Amino acid sequence: MRLADSSWARWAGQAGLLVLAFLVDFLGVDNGQLRFGGALPNQMIMLLGLPFFAVLLWRWRYPRVVFAVVLAYTVVAALAVPAYEPFAGLTIMLYTVSRRVATGQAIGWMLATTPAIAINAVNAGAGSGYQAGDYALAALLWTTIFGIAWVASRYSYRTARMVELRDAAHAAEAALAVQEERLRLARELHDIVAHTVSAMVVQAAGARTVSGRADVTEGALRAIEESGVRAMRELRRLLGLLRSEVTIEAPAAGTASLADLDDLVETTRACGVTVEVSSTGGPTDLDPSVDHAAYRIMGECLANVIKHGGRGASVWLRLGWRPELLHINVRSRRGADPTGPAVQSGLGLQGMLERIAALGGSLRYGETAAGDFVVDAQLPLRKPVAAGSDAADSTGAR
After folding, report:
1. I want to staple 337 with a disulfide (CB 3.0 to 4.6 A). Which of 89, 254, 310, 396 is the partner?
2. CATH class given for the domain over 178-380
């Protein structure tokens, strides 16, 4: 019902404007004297002109066609009845067609009114004894009126364009925000699955190979259970993010951080990997997003060691606390029975690059001459307001 009311109100407004223009045109008719003899009553002129004003109701749907019809009517009527100046409808149409096009086309529509202006100037001059001043005054009058309508149309055009550009910019920002959030959630899922599931697979394989030893099997099953519980807790938190309005700028409460690093280390050790952790400098408060990123970076490194290093692998985690940044160095060495090649292409390191680039930090990784794999990251203690997109630097791929 509201839509119908709005439509009726719009049509009523359109009709009111056209009635006003119709009256303005015909109130100025002095007589219906025809140029080539004879005369028409004013009522007849109004009746003949009524259909041409009625087509103005469709001026927004078919602006060019309606402009051509109204221009033809204006020129013919002015030629046939010198005392008649049917320019109100043409003024409305000039505004209409010029409001939706670029400046070049709008100038063309303005120039299209020249025949009507010229005919009216001739009529005015003839009616006053062919005085040059009357020609000029009539031409100036209608040029000014059309010019005002044209300038108003250009202002409306620019205003509409500014609104469109602003809406497009807002839509682009919204799409970018959605894309960033999707990438963040994808990284979260990868990190949860990569580390936890890899640990569970390694533990299960170990339990299967030593099925005759109850103590080892029980320990492996306990580690699998703890890993599964931890993964479920993380997944539940992530699903909670999907059900609420959160952004990458403000991690939700309960997000994994460096305070949970001991759990990662114990899970990795339970998979037969030797882990050494050291720290230099005094720990300080971190921005939540930096704290979470640091945890995920080390989690990805440990997951890669579990997947590719095999039992007997070794990894050294070093945290360097500096006044303005956190330095993370992870060096890993494969065991005697590695489960995969030393260097593989995957999403883990790509996720680290994306995380660090968003924080304005730097990342380097690659294999040393001795065969160790090193990941070296530097993160600012506070996330900058605007981080450069090219902050992350890589020297290899895994």
Report:
1. 310
2. alpha beta
